[in-house]
Write a structure and sequence with these properties.
alpha/beta, Rossmann fold, Glycerate kinase, domain 2, 2 domains, six-stranded mixed beta sheet, five-stranded parallel beta sheet, 13 helices, glycerate kinase activity, kinase
Length: 384
Amino acid sequence: MKIVIAPDSFKGSLTALKVGTIIKEAFSKELPDVDLEVIPMADGGEGTLDTLIYATDGTRKSLTASGPLLDPVETEYGVLGDNKTAVIEIAAISGLPMVPPGKRNPIYTSTFGIGEVIKQALEDGYRELIVGLGGSSTNDGGLGMLQALGARFLDEQDETLPSFGSSLFKLKRVDFTGLHPLLKEAKFTIASDVNNPLTGPNGATYVFGPQKGIADSELEAFDQAMGRYANLVENQIGLDLKEQEGAGAAGGLGFAFLILNARIESGSKIVADATRLQEKIVNADFVITGEGQSDYQTLLGKVPSFISSIAKEAGVKTILLSGSLGKGYEALYDHFLSCHSIATGPMSLGECMDNAEILLYNQARNIALLIKGISEECNNQVSI
């Protein structure tokens, strides 16, 4: 028997590689003779850099950049095993977990550090860049990132605006004449499974803003400010981009990268291609996948849904093992053989995250015992 273990990270708690390793350890205890292969996954969010470096035997480059609150943070970008492609993970520069819960509000967060890391990668000689867009704390439409790359955003007094989301409300003029010259040589591939436009009821602000700290009463004003920003930018560059799929990814960073002629691709597919996931699933008997929380949004292109689709095409059953099962999880039963949460009873999110390793191990062991029992029963029936 062969089992492929291909989870996403349990965000803020366990990396995808750690999740996969724990599941493998639990399965090995109950199924010591089974071929178990761990393939850590990501969809462009947290863990994308780690997964691509792991899959391609790449390297890391450390640097200091501005964090989401513009404080200096130690971060990194990766270089794939081809030694020519840089990988930048938004979550490692301006990620939501990097902002203390009491300070989470896109009015005060920035993407400036992302531009700094891009600039460094370009000046280090890399021209092909993969950017994982998930997990951001921001909703500035990429204004801060573009500032770091040489763009100017001005208020009605023609003064340069600060690199925060609040500047969307005061913006009167944009100037792209000072963009870094190496951007003309750069090829950006954006890893994102978010298809939302920049503005409107399905845009960045309304769909993702609340989880980043935007109050319901502020959503309309923020969305309108984002729309005015987009109109000024589009008038400057002569392109209509805000309605394109993916423009609303990462608080509008998708829109900013489209300005830089980026190509948006499925983050899950980029990682799956790098890890040769599909060819490994074809020969498996079961696939185990999971994420921090699975709910109705899981089916909107997230890693477990992507994995189950590949496995279904290959005629392989997929088991879902996640940190928790949230609103609308019942819809997942049509896509997975079974769905499991690591929680063993009433517990807070903090308790679950603090004890994630042992909870995951125990639940994975339960699933392994079930597979073991079914396998033994099948073998007994064959021998009879």
